[in-house]
UniProtKB/TrEMBL annotation:
This is C2H2-type domain-containing protein. PANTHER family: KRUEPPEL-LIKE TRANSCRIPTION FACTOR (PTHR23235), STRIPE, ISOFORM D (PTHR23235:SF60). Residues 135-166 have a biased composition (Low complexity). It comes from Loa loa. Keywords: DNA-binding, Metal-binding, Nucleus, Repeat, Transcription, Transcription regulation, Zinc, Zinc-finger.
Amino acid sequence: MFTYAYYREKHLKYTRCVDRGDRKFRCSICPRSFEKRDRLRIHVLHVHENHRPHVCSTCGKSFSQSSSLNKHFRVHSGERPYKCIFCSKSFTASSILRTHIRQHSGEKPFQCANCGKSFASHAAHDSHVRRTHQQQEQYQQQHQQQQQQQQYQQQQSPPPQQQQQQQQQQQRCSIYRCQMCQKHSSMNYNLNFINIVFTQ
């Protein structure tokens, strides 16, 4: 749901949620597609080749578009031309103002595909997905790996009764130990024989 029809039209035109079949120019690197070849060229140049020719003379930060650099200058100048009609706050960019206005209107156009929860900003939506659903996925994967590891260990180790028998046998064998070579024996006379071998 959008506050103004203009925002909805702009959203439909420039986002990937609707493809009317008029986006003939597909990016060979990512799934994006464009109506015009020129838009595809600009996309590849700025997104994939990281071409940023517009540099801030104050801090050295670079931008792909001159309009982005002009918006950035407001960080240094303190200019905030976009004023909220509901409260006294003002912002450096119209996009930030739009997100802020949603707090007043209650509009939440960004819906989570996993749980259906809605958000006022794309950033809040992405943060929710990272914190909630990606952590759940990671936990499920870790839990699954632990279960697989336990199953593997159970398959590799002998049954408890056999383990107990092996331990008892090792204990019986280790009653007598040679001080020279650390060999074990259940009978003392075997160690006497080993001692004879060492003394010769």
